[in-house]
Specification:
The structure is a single chain. With about 950 residues, the chain is an alpha+beta fold. Among the domains are: about 220 residues, Metalloenzyme, LuxS/M16 peptidase-like (Cytochrome Bc1 Complex, Chain A, domain 1, 2-Layer Sandwich), CATH 3.30.830; about 230 residues, Metalloenzyme, LuxS/M16 peptidase-like (Cytochrome Bc1 Complex, Chain A, domain 1, 2-Layer Sandwich), CATH 3.30.830; about 190 residues, Metalloenzyme, LuxS/M16 peptidase-like (Cytochrome Bc1 Complex, Chain A, domain 1, 2-Layer Sandwich), CATH 3.30.830.10. Helices cover about 45% and strands about 20% of the residues. It contains 36 helices and 27 strands. Strand 16 and strand 17 form a beta hairpin. The model has no long low-confidence stretch (mean pLDDT about 95). Bound molecules: zinc ion. The site of zinc ion (ZN) has 4 residues, from helix 1 and helix 5. One of its GO terms (molecular function) is metal ion binding. It comes from Devosia soli.
Length: about 950
């Protein structure tokens, strides 16, 4: 099946059994472009083109270019071809990413025609982008001057995005550490861009960077999937042959090694609690040598797992049990840099304790090198890796994407792209060496005997935010002072011109050039999942007969409606406690190892939704696990131990988990600010959303802070709550058992499942009234951040909207046109969108890393008017295609079984799904008008939640008194 093309030379042609693919490596004769063509049966086809783009400074040049090439190209001269694809293709992946040494452009689709469309637009974008000065200014940075009296300000999408990134202490820490570890190479720069340095970048430098690096001679292309391999080469040659060879030196230089460790410290904008300081972070980091081959990268992965892969891993355990900090930082070796970095540390410490942490890390590693890992530890780690390598479960991500990034690790630096895709030989080798002291020797070689080490520390500086804002103001004022009248006028005009350009719409004939499917290319029918339902010892058994390649996927669901409302905030910790406190038979280290040796993993989570028939809330707790058939019985024994015998009296472990949970939530505050606003906004609207906030929103954070204290002062009442949950929740008469496995595995599984379920308690249980009452509230939640997350919403059903699935088409259009333009392009936020849940009727507008506040609310208030303007035929078609694409996104087999169960638990029958699909396919202008009317009502009747900086929130309240009730969250 060797494919060929005269323009390409075939360099390698091998079967890679581990990924069930024929791998062919080609070299484009004229330009030297390299192509990895993976032929397999995966319908979820992937294409990706990657360039080496090592930056020489921290102006964010590679990152700004990544944004800009997607803003119009030779064949597709519209403002945002990327957004057109986002709106109207069946993509299963569509994005671009900047790394410290490369920029990658991957796309994926399960529809062949759609796939070729995506490849075509992406190839034209990277090689023939328009890259106008306007695009550079909009995506990168520019001066904005409203009028001659107004202050001069910086604007730009990446400028603002990076301000948001640097608002997160974790990002500040990571940036500081990486810079310190590789001071003499490209890794010593901030590839995303440091907001202080971004304004030094010029348009000329930007253009030159593209010319130099975005060239076939510097390209690595990956194709993977079931599309025709010959056609891949033909598509590429058509583009590559337009270039002459231009070899470019983009090699990432090696950082020279040091002979002695170093220290680095810094600060971030944050608050300090003078009573008990918890604002410090410290980690001990090493630079490693480039790995030699697959055996070494696999060994790095397994060693990281052995040291810190779960809470029972000795180094993680030592750090978290030390009481010095709140949770672990880093977690081992990350192999995506040419010389990998490794780091272990703690966050939530008193900065004065930094040296203690350093000593603890080094002492623990020395101890482990001496005493070694136990056989149980090694076996658990090796089995866990082997299970995941064979399963190749990439979750929602197309598998081919993983192949691409895995191959690039070595390929980018002149190594073999195929070796990283294999694992059998390397795994066999490690299994041999593991018992002979291999990992212990590696601890010495990689860490203890390696002087290229940095101890990196940061702490909060309460003045930093104001100081940086002042420095930026001063810098701008100085620029402003140097401007003469002509320059001021020119900047004003430029500001107006840029805004006018942003308002301009593309010509329909240009938009029509973007290739698209037609409605006729779409399946009219929903995809269904086989489900057999039966009774199993009083529980409800659902079985999905799907090809699972010999693995059994099991979800055990328990109805949360039997719990009283005051118990709900305890659930996340309760779930963790089941798996991480041990049982009366064994401690949690031994239990964790038993899970690792026996299964492909056991996990827990909760799911919440408003039921479709308005009969209330579906609220479930799940314990899920997977195993091979031979280990299924043993997995059930573990599950039974965990459900009935977890050590809920293990105060020490529960205290550590509460601290970790709190630190984890606080760290998410900035990167996930929009979802925190979303959760808070809806908490007063429906019962399911209220529970979600109680057990995962700002209320939950407050609960955790209080709980951490109560564990010390009032443990017996805390323990009593945990017991009460277990004694009420685990009840087989309110239980669903969901099994996804080949039909041939069912008979055996069913008999062991039957005795397992019979061993669980059976109780009378009544549904509790959680006392939820609709009570929307407008709030300003203050955190130390330079950007805002602005939300506004309401329940549309309550406002009289007759919910139709066609609303998804309207939202897709709204999100990719009006909100994209106004909130992101013109407003300078990283993102802005709306969300609507068909079942509950909850609607929210949300912005992400937003420099504005009131202006964004005004944009939301104008949305109805934008919808009333109606939609053209081609936009309508594209939006329908996009929504169907989302609905048909391929799921991994375990997710198929889980989704089918969740639809049953929420009352979403196949008839309803088909009806919804029909509504989507038949979406029309009338749907736009109907939703416009509902959204119109949000303007006056909706409520507002903002998470952001204190100054911004106060200023907004001054302008619109009574807009928000202000409270400090961090
Ligand atoms: Zn970006």
């Amino acid at each position: 099946m060797a494919s060929s093309h005269p323009a390409f030379e075939l360099v390698r042609d091998e079967k890679v059994a581990e990924i069930n693919s024929q791998a062919q490596l080609f070299r484009h004769k004229k330009t030297g472009a390299e192509v990895l063509s993976l032929v397999n049966e995966d319908e979820n086809k992937v294409f990706g083109i990657t360039f080496k783009t090592p930056p020489e400074d921290s102006t964010g040049i590679a990152h700004i270019l990544e944004h800009s090439v997607l803003c119009g190209s030779r064949k597709y001269p519209v403002k945002k071809p990327f957004v057109e694809l986002l709106k109207g293709s069946m993509h299963t992946f569509l994005n671009a990413m900047t790394f410290p040494d490369k920029t990658a452009y991957p796309v994926a689709s399960a529809n062949l025609k759609d796939f070729y469309n995506l490849v075509d637009v992406y190839l034209d974008a990277v090689f023939f982008p328009l890259l106008t000065e306007d695009t550079f200014e909009q995506e990168g940075w520019h001066y904005e001057l409203e009028n001659a009296e107004a202050p001069l300000v910086y604007k730009g999408v990446v400028f603002n995005e990076m301000k948001g990134v640097f608002s997160s202490p974790d990002s500040v820490m990571h940036d500081q550490t990486q810079r310190a570890l590789y001071p003499d190479t490209t890794y010593g720069k901030s590839s995303g861009g440091d907001p202080k340095d971004i304004p030094a970048l010029t348009y000329e430098q930007f253009k030159r960077f593209h010319q130099k690096f975005y060239h076939p001679s510097n390209a690595r292309v990956v194709f993977a999937g079931d599309d025709a391999p010959e056609k891949r080469l033909a598509i590429l040659d058509e583009v590559f042959s337009q270039f002459e060879a231009a070899p470019v030196d983009a090699e990432v230089k090696l950082q020279p090694r040091w002979n002695a460790p170093r220290q680095v410290s810094g600060t971030y904008a944050g608050t300090v609690d003078p009573e008990k300081r918890r604002d410090g972070m410290v980690s001990v980091n090493w630079m490693l040598d480039p790995p030699e081959g697959r055996a070494e990268t696999l060994s790095h992965g397994i060693l990281s797992y052995l040291l810190a892969g779960n809470s029972a891993a000795p180094l993680r355990k030592k750090l978290t049990e030390s009481g010095i900090g709140e949770s672990m930082l880093g977690g081992g070796i990350s192999t995506w840099l040419r010389q990998p970095m490794a780091g272990f540390g703690l966050k939530g410490i008193d900065p004065a304790d930094a040296e203690k942490v350093e000593k603890l890390v080094l002492d623990t590693l020395a101890e482990l090198a001496e005493t070694g890992f136990s056989e149980e530890q090694r076996e658990a780690a090796l089995n866990t890796f082997e299970f995941h390598l064979r399963e190749q479960n990439t979750g929602g991500q197309p598998r081919g994407m993983n192949y691409m990034f895995t191959a690039l690790g070595a390929w980018l630096h002149g190594g073999d792209p195929l070796a990283p895709l294999t694992f059998e030989a390397a795994l066999e080798d490690l299994k041999q060496k593991a018992g002979q002291g291999h990992f212990e020797r590696e601890i010495r070689r990689l860490f203890l005997d390696n002087p290229h080490r940095v101890t990196s520390k940061i702490e909060a500086d309460p003045e930093q935010g104001a100081r940086e804002a002042k420095a930026e103001e001063d810098k701008l004022a100085a620029v402003r002072a140097r401007m003469d009248d002509a320059a001021i006028k020119a900047t004003e005009e430029r500001t107006a011109r840029l805004r006018a350009l942003q308002e301009e719409v593309d010509r329909p004939e240009d938009l029509a050039k973007i290739p698209t499917l037609t409605l006729g290319d779409l399946d009219r029918d929903i995809r269904t999942v086989p489900t057999d339902e039966s009774d199993l010892a009083g529980a409800r058994l659902l079985h999905h007969d799907l090809p699972t390649l010999g693995i059994l996927y099991l979800d055990l669901g328990f109805d949360l409606k039997v719990l009283s409302a005051d118990l709900l905030p305890y659930l996340p910790l309760f779930g963790r406690a089941l798996l991480q406190t041990g049982t009366s038979k064994e401690d949690f280290v031994s239990l964790t190892q038993r899970i690792g040796r026996t299964t492909g993993g056991i996990s827990q989570h909760r799911s919440l939704a408003t039921k479709l028939d308005d009969s209330g809330t579906a609220a479930w707790f799940f314990l899920s696990g997977k195993s091979v058939p031979a280990k299924f019985g043993e997995m059930l024994e573990i599950m039974s131990d965990v459900l009935l015998d977890a050590r809920l009296d293990n105060r020490e472990r529960i205290r550590q988990m509460a601290l970790e949970e709190k630190a984890g939530f606080e760290a998410r505050m900035i990167p996930a600010g929009n979802s925190i606003v979303d959760t808070r906004l809806k908490a007063g609207l429906t019962e399911a959303s209220w529970v979600a906030e109680q057990s995962g929103g700002v209320s939950y954070l407050q609960f955790l802070r209080d709980l951490v204290k109560r564990i010390d002062t009032d443990w017996s009442s805390v323990e009593a709550r945990f017991r009460q949950i277990r004694n009420t929740l685990f009840n087989r008469s309110r239980m669903v058992v969901n099994l996804t496995a080949d039909g041939s595995l069912l008979a055996d599984a069913k008999s062991s499942l039957g005795s397992f379920v019979s061993g669980l308690p059976q109780r009378d249980a009544t549904e509790q009234d959680w006392g939820f009452a609709v009570a929307p509230k407008s709030e300003g939640l203050v955190i130390p951040a330079q950007v805002n997350y602005v939300g506004k919403g309401a329940n549309l059903k309550a406002l009289g909207y007759n919910a139709s699935a066609a609303s998804a088409v309207v939202l897709r259009f709204l999100n990719t046109t009006y909100l994209w333009d106004k909130v992101r392009v013109q407003g300078g936020a990283y993102g802005g969108s709306s969300r609507f849940d068909l079942s509950s009727g909850n609607f929210a507008f949300l912005s992400y890393r937003d420099p504005n506040l009131l202006k964004t609310l005004d944009v939301y208030d104008g949305a109805a008017k934008a919808l009333r303007a109606g939609i053209g035929e081609s936009d309508l078609t594209r939006s329908i295609i996009g929504v169907i694409g989302d609905a048909d996104r391929p799921e991994f087999v375990d997710a198929k079984g889980y989704s089918a169960m969740w639809r049953i638990l929420t009352g979403t029958t196949d008839d309803i799904r088909q009806q919804r699909r029909n509504e989507i396919l038949g979406a029309s202008n009338a749907d736009f008008l109907a939703l416009a009317e509902a959204i119109e009502a949000i303007r006056d009747k909706g409520h507002v939640v903002v998470l952001g900086g204190e100054a911004a929130i106060k200023a907004a309240n001054d302008q619109r008194p009574g807009l928000m009730e202000i409270s400090k969250v961090m």
